[in-house]
């Protein structure tokens, strides 16, 4: 492979590599006839990203003819080539990428201002192909938004937050932080943001749904989308099946495929954390209109009396299953690449997120039993000794 | 027990945010006392907080457009909560351009202070963000721990120099030593001193002026004092640094009372907010 | 107590008094050589030379000429002492080292000779700080015997272009290899890191190259860890002269302009790494 990137596209390429570095430690590079594919996957295989740059993205592009060639290398090393992201635009005039299969060497040559020439020779390993199993076109829900909207949204969440829950219902979209069930987490702050469908460029909801996925990768994609100003599409179905975040343009296509928490863990989380913050959000305006005394803390009343809608979400949660889209198995059938991933079957799946490549997680009985007990404990602990005695 | 409040004015929102930011730099957790007229952020000098105490008083009318409070009992019309100021600060930071911010005591999975804000958008419908911040309700029997500290019977009271200057000096001294001696007299002079095996450093401030405390009898000791005589206290330099770090705006008045070899009492007045901070002496 | 009356008391027995209207003209240049605590001060009627060394392989010198000071009085041919440089810098910047125009810290520095502390009087906006820093007997700095007659290759570059390279250097590489040659690649910086190698080539006709005098091809390696502190000097400088002698010793000379546009120099000497692979 031999290609040249010039002008502003150097920065686009650099940003793409920085985005990919949010996903995994290795960069998979595959020059194809249809363009250059850069991919990465995280260690638990629950997040995958692919940037496909079409030949038109380059001012020159020659792919190896004949047999397919793939390689992988440490993403940090490629990142180092484009270390000074901020000054890249001003200093780099041309970037030449050359792949020498015989020497197992990938060479980046940056032609910079004042005649300075930077040559980076990186070694690589041959690799298997890396393709995730997803079919974004079959997703029942699609949202498209300007990067700014999502950037402003994630700003509300603390940088250390790992997972975020996205819910859609009617004409509204909710983002809220997802918390683990561990006891110390009950002291964590909960943030919820409600957006109207008007704020999205495209809003097509086939089935009310609520999914939980990692925020880190979304942030990674946002860095890219914001610098290129391209809108982001979010394709998703029911909990447990992957969410696909994509950015496309005439010369590039980006897909981030992230596993979502399967239903049972979602349910568990909601029961434990709050009754109100269940999978189906409360009417959006309830907090903003002034008749919400039912939400005020009223510790003088019985410790079991939650808000009247407290039970409803759980009912909705269980009734949601029939409305879901084709099960994961269908996606698997569509995959041709799956065999190539077999060497990784021994790897235990991530504790919460199913791998994007294999299997599904079934709710298990012991968890369900456990969950019931936990939620009862929570209700009981609502009473505060002092408040009862101190109230009229 | 009910509490709800609302801020519409952007100036008030900024001001309130600054106060909360300041508190969040001073302590990880503190008590928020809500009364019909005032809000208080309180830290009582426990060993766990390094012995420092804090008392910050805000008049609710100066911040809130609406303010409703129903205390735990008619004879105790107050609510006392343990809060994490950093959480309040983070919630406020994300709603700086809000059209309106409501703060409410709510019952979620645990007692929470809920911040709800309406954020402007390009579309006709606002964005709504809510932050549920878990709090602990402090039982009435423990309230006595969080009363306003008494003004100590100090030896010297003095106005502080610009806090920025003081912060620069204390920051460097912190690099050189763990302890600092603060001394002042009734002649408007104040010194900050450190001494180690490698170096001794003294910064001399003069013409600072001494506040005319009077009427409350607490200044009895300083009445007949030699104006040149220094009262001094040795403190943990980090405590003083932390106090100075939290100050984002120069207060209209900044003062310090020194009880010789016992305690330093720092007082900041900024418009309608007062902040008192007590740092105990170390041997 | 004003700055002058306070300093009066110790000035009767001084051997060295130096004053600056703007302490940054001293503190900034000392920052460029701060990589070890111990600094050797040597004052002569020409000015002040401050030396910092690391493991007998690296030496940094800062020169502040007598003319930079508003007052520079020395009662002996040469006055030497050793102080902790980190402590000295904290003292010099006690008021924060403000860069706000019109706000400067004045300095008066006095030394009464062997056994006495170095006394600093600093004043900003009427506030006075007095510092007494313990001194030690100075050690003899290493003589690197770097002599301009033995210089084989020399280039002068605008610092701007080297700053970029140094900020991007692959720190997983143990060495920085410098190639200077009358033919291609002229002036090359190379690293050999975990994942591959990188070369930065500066053509001799680049507009960043102010002088190019290379008589023979020379490739030398220097420990990255030793060269790293020199980036502090690079950051402050506007030009840098890179020289190597016949033994492969490296001299980096940085031209630094202070707040008053006066010129000072900082220089670094570095021994070549012993295990040089022939390339």
Identify the notable features of this structure and list them briefly:
heterotrimer; A: 392 residues; alpha+beta; DNA Polymerase III, Chain A, domain 2; five-stranded antiparallel beta sheet; 10 helices; 25% helix; disordered C terminus; C: 279 residues; Proliferating Cell Nuclear Antigen; nine-stranded antiparallel beta sheet; 44% strand
What order do the helices and strands come in, and which of them pair?
The complex is a heterotrimer of chains A (392), B (283) and C (279).
Chain A: E1 2-6, H1 8-21, E2 26-32, E3 35-41, E4 47-53, E5 60-62, E6 71-74, H2 75-81, H3 85-91, E7 92-100, E8 105-112, E9 117-123, E10 125-126, E11 141-145, H4 147-154, E12 163-169, E13 172-178, E14 190-196, E15 202-205, E16 209-214, H5 215-228, E17 232-236, E18 243-248, E19 252-258, H6 263-273, H7 312-320, H8 328-334, H9 365-380, H10 385-390
Antiparallel strand pairs in A: 1-5, 1-7, 2-3, 2-6, 3-4, 4-19, 6-10, 7-8, 8-9, 11-15, 11-17, 12-13, 12-16, 13-14, 17-18, 18-19
Helix pairs in contact in A: 1-2, 1-5, 4-5, 6-9
Chain B: E1 2-7, H1 10-26, E2 30-34, E3 38-43, E4 53-59, E5 66-70, E6 79-83, H2 85-93, E7 100-107, E8 111-119, E9 127-134, E10 136-137, E11 156-159, H3 163-176, E12 179-184, E13 190-195, E14 199-205, E15 231-236, H4 237-245, E16 253-259, E17 263-270, E18 273-280
Antiparallel strand pairs in B: 1-5, 1-7, 2-3, 2-6, 3-4, 4-18, 6-10, 7-8, 8-9, 11-16, 12-13, 12-15, 13-14, 16-17, 17-18
Helix pairs in contact in B: 1-2, 3-4
Chain C: H1 3-11, E1 16-20, H2 24-31, E2 38-44, E3 47-54, E4 58-65, E5 71-74, E6 79-84, H3 85-92, E7 106-111, E8 118-124, E9 127-133, E10 151-158, H4 159-168, E11 175-180, E12 187-193, E13 196-202, E14 209-214, E15 218-223, H5 224-227, H6 230-236, E16 237-245, E17 250-257, E18 263-270
Describe the structure.
- Chain A is α+β, with helices and mostly antiparallel strands.
- Chain A has two domains: 2-126, Proliferating Cell Nuclear Antigen (Box); 140-227 and 260-377, DNA Polymerase III, Chain A, domain 2 (Roll).
- Chain A has helices at residues 8-21, 75-81, 85-91, 147-154, 215-228, 263-273, 312-320, 328-334, 365-380, 385-390, and strands spanning 2-6, 26-32, 35-41, 47-53, 60-62, 71-74, 92-100, 105-112, 117-123, 125-126, 141-145, 163-169, 172-178, 190-196, 202-205, 209-214, 232-236, 243-248, 252-258.
- In chain A, helix 6 (263-273) runs parallel beside helix 9 (365-380).
- The relative contact order of chain A is 0.13.
- In chain B, the strands form three sheets. In chain B, strands 10-6-2-3-4-18-17-16-11 form a nine-stranded antiparallel beta sheet. In chain B, strands 5-1-7-8-9 form a five-stranded antiparallel beta sheet. A four-stranded antiparallel beta sheet of chain B has the order 14-13-12-15.
- Chain B starts with a strand and ends with a strand.
- Chain B has two domains: 2-146, Proliferating Cell Nuclear Antigen, CATH 3.70.10.10; 156-280, Proliferating Cell Nuclear Antigen, CATH 3.70.10.10.
- Chain B has 283 residues and is an alpha+beta fold.
- Chain C has 279 residues and is α+β, with helices and mostly antiparallel strands.
- Chain C has two domains: 3-133, Box (Proliferating Cell Nuclear Antigen); 148-270, Proliferating Cell Nuclear Antigen.
- In chain C, a hairpin with a 6-residue loop joins strand 7 and strand 8.
- The N and C termini of chain C lie far apart (66 Å).
- The interface between A and B is large, with 42 and 44 residues.
